[in-house]
Batch of 3 targets.
Target 1
Amino acid sequence: MRLFLATSFAVALTTATAAQAQSGPSFDCAKASNVVERAVCKDADLAKADRELASLYTALLGRLTGPAKESLEKNQVSWIVSRNRSCGASEPDMTTYCLKKRYEERIADLKASGTGTYPFVEAQTIEKKGKVGKVSYSIDILYPRFAGKTADFSAVNKVYADNAAKAARETTPTSDPGVDRPQEWSAMGSYALYRPGPDAITVALDFWSYTGGAHGYGAITCKLVDLRSGKAVAPEAVFAPGDQWLKELVILTAADLKKQFVENPGFDDALKPASLTKLLREGSHYCWQAGKLQLYFNPYEVGPYAAGAYTVDIPYARLRPHLRAGGPVAF
């Protein structure tokens, strides 16, 4: 493990020019010696993602100094460990999916970390496996911790830690569940970072669990964190005073969802102004990104489980009259 980590970490330091010049990943596939490396070498999309990640990491590392540089190096090693543990232990047909998701999230993190104030976001993990009666369970949850010293992030960090611990408890049988055939319970969590402004970070938590029943349930929830105050920011603090912004969002969201419902039917009642107004008062739907607001609706919120999630992307140009001047979102 130590040798592989050292090799992988050295790979991440490959220069952007050298990485992009290759058609494969940023490392020599002739020397691939484990499940993760071989999977990356076999998949063109993963190889491309590996090159992009190496390029972003090297460029960012070269711009940072002191504690920020040390934090980035530490986070990269942690990411490699987590990637190998989670994706390397996956079923063969799930390894590629797992890796694509991990690379997508890490690339988003590096892009977000390279704009404005370095956010000092460190990955924390809860990993656990066991068996109670006929139920085998596995827990692999990543959640963020803001480690910067410029503000007090304790309240935000407590919410993330408490929610992760709660999810782990709910996936761990405390006694024999009494099921009549073997079951596999699981909880998986990860996150991605987005940068809507130089002094703010959006954390998009992606969580999925199964604890019996017809199917599991997954959800993505977003939180905007102001790096200057260390506090979570509600939508009301991003928009100008009043409720005109909410009325505009209801109109834009209803129009977009109505188009999506043609190909992927949802709940007609969800398009009613009162229903959307209630949903859009919940800050977890607001995934503030660079240049746009993405509204994320999980299964059952505006459509049936089989329809999956719905997203509505709104460029900041459409929202400019309603965004608060000097707020955390750059427009």
Target 2
Amino acid sequence: MKKLFIAVLLFVGIVSFAQDVNQKPAGDQREKLTLQQRNEKHLQKLTSELNLDKKQQEQVKQLLTERSAKAEKFREARKDSKTKPTDAEREAFKKQMKAEKEANDAKMKAILNADQYTKWTALKKEHKGHYRKGDFKTPQERDQAHLQKLTTDLNLNADQQKQVGELLSDRSTKMAMLKKSRRDSDVKPTDAERKAMKKQMEEDHKAFDSKMKSILNADQYKKWTAIQKERKDKMKDHRKDKM
């Protein structure tokens, strides 16, 4: 745990810095880039937005590289962790996050001139608002958005919308219960528990598929399975890119 906690503190810089300078595109539009390529893209964006000169570009590039190295340490430490942080560790982590963010801000302020720094802080504020509004939705909001998309893609009638809405709500409730159970646990699941969880998820998926098949007509179900396959393939590609 100590190793994980220290690594988390080191990792904060890259998270805050990357989020500050580059907005995340939506899931299907997210580019599949290596860490080095993402750093280069961040740098290009900053160069364009803030009109960085060559010296500033080198300084910002170094800052990004350092934080990328810290991010790698964090990922390795997270793999080695067997337990979750205590409340005291979380509180210390929260304070350290604030300190790291302030340190990052100070470094950027030292690199940029007054006008550039003002614009950079404005970009951070704009992204923060976008990130909160666009990326964090309640389960109910996600279900409603999903239902609206299915209604459009599959041309659902009123009765089908009601049934699919209830199905999505039931699934969200199960997922919330699973997440709560994992949060309440102080240790990571064993290999046997992971296998059992995977098996249960497969059974739940089959049950969900069966219920959708009973709600949709033949053409709608065929189109829905095609949409599911496309989504699954994109998720696989995204996971491969992160490896």
Target 3
Amino acid sequence: MTALAQSAVPGADLPSAPPLPPYHGITLSAVHLVHTAEQAEAARQILLAADIVGFDTESKPTFVKGQSSDGPHLVQFATDTGAWLFPIGADASAVLPALKAVLEAEGTLKVGFGLSDDMRRVRAKLGIEPVRVVDLAVALRTPGQKHDLGAKSAVARFFGRTLHKSKKISTTNWAAARLTDKQILYAADDAQVALRICRHWLAQGNVLPPPRAPKAPRRRKSTET
């Protein structure tokens, strides 16, 4: 293309938009790992005192075709000031009552991004039916938008910042006995960024759609003749 032709193209000489500044997430000191019944009870009291909490889960990835995940291996919640991470090992009996209390609480709204798989795995593995859950990926779509809104896009749209989500960290072993600091911050940010986006959305005078009703249990077919 000649210089003359290039100058005739609308916007050809306009500089590209500068990159957005980074999103500053939660600090490691504000994240609490929940392993014992005592830690779970303390977390339960804090989370149930909140009107809204951020919610997400992480599962160990599968790399074999046809293999299904046995997650979640981590369930995380966040308030405005902190995050609580519940590792789900072979024996989750110490933390399960607190998880059930929070996820089934009618008085606390749970918000997150892309929660359909998370909800399915929580039901299948933990036997918990979450209530008052809003998936912001769907709830914050603009009129005519066909695709769900991801956390990165939401942070760019509402905060004018870039949320860094490492693919390398997201595909690490979430079932590991000891999580790395990078895993801990990744998981905590996933939960808290949803809460921050929700707070911002509501502060602008918007409203969220009604939370999805829990799935009705499947009726067993009668074997009587």
